[in-house]
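re: that chain from earlier
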Amino acid sequence: MNYQYRVYPSQPQELRMGSWLEICRGVYNYALGERKDWIKSRKCDINSCSLVSEYIIGAEVPYPDYYKQQNALTAIKAKLPHLKDVQSQVIQEPLRRVDAAFVAMKARGYGFPRFKKFGQYRSFLFPQFKDSPVNGSKIKLPKIGEMTIVLHRQIPDGFEVKTVRVIRKHSGWYVTLCLQCDVTVPDVPPHGNAIGIDVGLSYFLSTSDGEQVARPRFFDKLHRKLELLQRCLKRKQKRSNTRSKLIQKIGKVHEQIAESRLDWQFKLAHHLCNRAGMIFVEDLDFRIMAKGMLGKHTLDAGLGQFVNQVLPWVCFKRGVYYGKVDPKGTSQTCPDCGAKVKKDLSVRIHDCHECGSVKPRDVAAGQVICARGLSGVEIASGAEVSGALETVSRQLAMKLEDSKSDLGKPALYA
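^ sequence. v structure.
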């Protein structure tokens, strides 16, 4: 688990940590440039030459991977004495970042790593500790010393601190403690009452039992303030003190928006876990929604953050089963009879022409999601879900299976 705390370093400590960030940024850019030059020396166009000068690297020179760059770091320290000010394991972490960036690029097939500008390198990592660095209201870090930590929640018994990441934000300095306990946590089995959740923009979410939660507008509430601050920023002289102070003020507003959104989503996730033993959602790619004409509102709501990060974590902590279902046709299917009811996005009421069912469109979609989730759990486990047969959602699943089987199609995933 990762716990984040606010820390208050002294002025010498703050200056030293700031210099460490810039040194780590230099190591990152140097390692990235070394790999980039090696790659460019191995390829060229057959009909043209480069418009800029390129390094000529011999064919016998191997690719500068993580281990070669790490071994070369010791020799570089002899030429650049200021690198010795940074703790030895901290200065190796930028090399791991570069290596991880290239691994991720090869996995997704695009996204060549970029150089980091001034101020873009915001954290450094202490990868291991022999003893816990936290002692009461103080935390002691190598080569930095003790500083005050706001321990708003205690470290749980049986957990030990494995790593500490120091982060610089516009609002101040923070540390993220990675805590580990040598236990095995089993997967949460399906149990209890089940609810299906349909997320959207007209309502943030609608559940299969009829609850609808309005979408909060965290960015819209502070949009005017950001607009005025950024308009003032445009008139400031670059690299001036007033410009840097204004950038810090704008960053604090963005942090307020993000923290308010995250706090609200965690409270909503706990509210849902209080009512259910199983939660089912659609397996959607919210990146596609963020690129459309409603992208600003999609990002403001944070649908992907809630569905893919916050809700699964809270369900894991609370012992609630969490599952995703096929999103195809959830809003075009009647939850009561299984008939196909075509409707575009402007139609917000589900009105079935077969059985006469009338209900909000998002609630009907949530009921279909719940039915699909229960059917998928029973197919995977090969047994009935305990405590779910008497629920309305289970009855909906039976109706959907009957209607699909009458048409000679697979039960739910046709």
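The two ends are 39 Å apart (CA to CA).
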